[in-house]
Amino acid sequence: MKIEKNLFFNLRHYEYGEAFFGSYKGMRFRLAREPLDHVFFVPVEERDPEARLMATVWPEPYSYFDTPDEQKTSEKFSIDEEGFEKAIEWINEQYDSRDWGES
Question: Which residues of 7-19 are buried (b: 16+ CB within 10 A; e: fewer)?
């Protein structure tokens, strides 16, 4: 595995409505709860049942906000440890599946 789980904030971090951004050898990535809401103090049963972890990758050099949407690839995962691990696995698969311009 190229990008390890310990690089990311723990799963509870995403309940604060904050995204995690990173980069790896020409690929940038983002992991966030979507919708990006602060739900830490909201009881679980009152949270949006459609919410998911969304992993997104795109080529360097620009930030998430400065990169056109058509250059981004995203996938959604459940907001639990299994979904968290699958999201990281998916980000690694995206790296392996393309030439990101660096080695």
Answer: ebeeeebbbeeeb
